[in-house]
Amino acid sequence: MVNFEIYPRLVGKEKVMIKYSKENLEFRIHKVYDTDNDFQFHLIYLKKFEKIDPLAIQNYILSLFQTPSEVKLVENETVQLQQIPKLKNLSSCFIQKEEVEAKDFENFIKSHPSLKGVAVDGQINGELDDDVDISGIRNLMFLKARKATANILKNFKKSVLNLKEAQCDNSLLIDVVRKWYNKEAYDQLKLITVILKPEYQFDTVDRQRSIEHVREFEPKRSDPKRRPKEYWYQQEYIPLKVGEPMTAGNQLDIEQKSGGKLMKIHRKSRKIEKI
Q1: What CA–CA distance (Å, rounded) separates 265 from 252?
Q2: What confidence tens digit (pLDDT) does each residue in 154-167 have?
Q3: Which PANTHER family match (predicted)?
Q4: pLDDT (tens digit, 9 = 90+) per residue, 106-120?
C-alpha cells in the first residue's frame, strides 16, 4: 500500500526528488510495517508545491507504483480546509486547527465519500446540520467535541467514536446505551469514548443517579472469564496512536437485549466505552 500525505514541511533528512513536468518535487518516504498490508510507504508531499494541481501529482505518483494507494491528509493552521481540492481515494484526514467552521467541515466530508477515518483537533465553530452524513466514516475522533457532541452521537453509525471535551448531560449518554441495548442503533460499534468537560462531569449525586438509570439494562460486574483483563482496539485510518490499552477491571458489563454483544461502562472515569 502506498499512502500519500501532505505536510507544510518535511521533517528529517531523508528526502527524495521526483521530477514532475518542470518541477523537482520533494518527498520523504516513510516505510511502516503493517500486519494487513506487509509494508506501507508514506510519500509525504511538501506543501510549497501546492500551486501544482494535487490531483495531477497524485496520479503521477500512482503511476510509479503497481499497487493501489490510499490517500491520507494532514491539515493544520497553514492549510485552509475549504481550499483543499477533491482528492481521489482519500481514506483519512487529521485536521489540526483552533476552530473548524461547521460548513467547511460538512462540505469537505461531502466531497470525499471515500473517507474512513477523520480526526479533528479543533472546536467546531457553528452547528452541524442534522443531515450531515458522517454515518459512512468508520472511525471518528473529535478532541474538542464541545457543543457538537449531541449531533455527532446522533449521526455516527460506524465502528469507533472518540469524543473529548464533550458537552452533554447524563441522559444523552444513557440514551446511547439504551438504543444499543435494544438493538435500535449503534449495531456496528466497537468503541465509544465520551470524556466530558469538567463542568459537565458527574458529581456524587449524578453518578449515583446514573447507576440507577443503568439498572434497567441488568448490568453485571465485569467477569474476566468472559473477556481478557486487557485488550487493544485499533484506530484504523486515524493518524494518531495505533492502539490504546483498555482495562476491564472494576467495570459493569451489559449484554444486549435477547443476547448479543457486550458493553462495558466506565463510571469512575466519567466516560462510556463500548467494545
Answers
A1: 5
A2: 878 888 888 888 88
A3: F-BOX ASSOCIATED DOMAIN-CONTAINING PROTEIN-RELATED, F-BOX-CONTAINING HYPOTHETICAL PROTEIN C.ELEGANS
A4: 888 888 888 888 888
In the chain, which residue ranges form alpha helices assigned H by DSSP? 54-63, 102-111, 149-155, 170-181, 204-214
Residues contacting residue 253 through CB under 8 Å, at least 6 positions apart: 219, 220, 221, 222, 223, 226, 227, 262, 263, 264
Residue 116 DSSP SS3: coil
Here the cell at position 120 is: 479533528
Report the relative pairing of strands 252-255 and 262-266 from DSSP bridges.
antiparallel
Task: Tell me the pairing of strands 90-101 and 69-75.
Answer: parallel
How far, in Å, CA of 16 to CA of 26, rounded? 6
The continuous run of DSSP H or E covering 91 comes out as strand 90-101
What DSSP assignment string belongs to 37-70?
TEEEEEEEEEGGGTTS-HHHHHHHHHHT-SS-EE
Contact 109, 118 (CB under 8 A): yes
The DSSP element (H or E) to which 106 belongs, if any, is: helix 102-111
Percentages (nearest 5) of helix, strand, coil residues in the chain:
25, 35, 40
What is the rounded distance in angstroms from the CA atom of residue 76 to the CA atom of residue 259?
45
Alpha carbon distance 152, 160 (integer Å): 12
The residues pairing with 124 across neighbouring beta strands, listed in sequence order, are: 100
Q: Name the DSSP class of 113.
A: T
- How many residues are given for the chain? 275
204-214 helix and 170-181 helix, angle to the nearest 10 degrees: 20
Would you kindly state where each structural domain of the chain is located, as residue ranges?
1-67, 72-273
Amino acid at position 7, single letter: Y
Q: Compute how many other C-beta atoms are within 10 angstroms of the C-beta atom of residue 140.
A: 23
